[in-house]
Design goal:
The protein has 8 helices and 7 strands. A 7-stranded mixed beta sheet has the order 4-3-2-1-5-6-7.
Amino acid sequence: MKPLTRIRSRTAVLAHENIDTDRIIPARFLTTTQRAGLGRFAFNDWRYTADGKPDPAFELNQPAARGCEILVAGRNFGCGSSREHAPWALLDYGIRVVLSSEIADIFRNNALKNGLLAVVLEGAEHRYLLAHPGIELAIDVAQQTIELPDGGRFSFTLDAFAKHCLLAGVDQLGFLLAQNDAIDIFERRRGVAA
């Protein structure tokens, strides 16, 4: 995983409410445990027409959305079934941050564990971002702030462990593997004391 310390990007807005994990990546694409390549299936049934061509009406297919690493989504993003493929698909697509007024707990936990910052905003903050697509934001993970172009700031909360993993660019397994020496010392001491 890449560390996520600070990100500056324009926003892409997908204002639909109740975007479930099957909308993020349809179940028919869950045939792999490889993360690479899943981005081509992100929002598949919205992104493409029946003949497989990009749908020009879909918000993320608009020229203004190209290169945006921050997704402002409607309320209740990531609801539905639990699947790590959903944050994997978003990350592979190029999304590093999801902002919404409500994010399903299981999706948010899966996102944070996989390096995707999922932030729950207050209602007024969320409405402001929905109304200003393409706005450039600077997000500081260590400070837990979102800076607006006019210098205004929104604050957000983040679990300390999730914050550590995002800043270090490690998932839970990577965190545990980095503790291997300390674990060995603990086990040796325990074996001697027993």
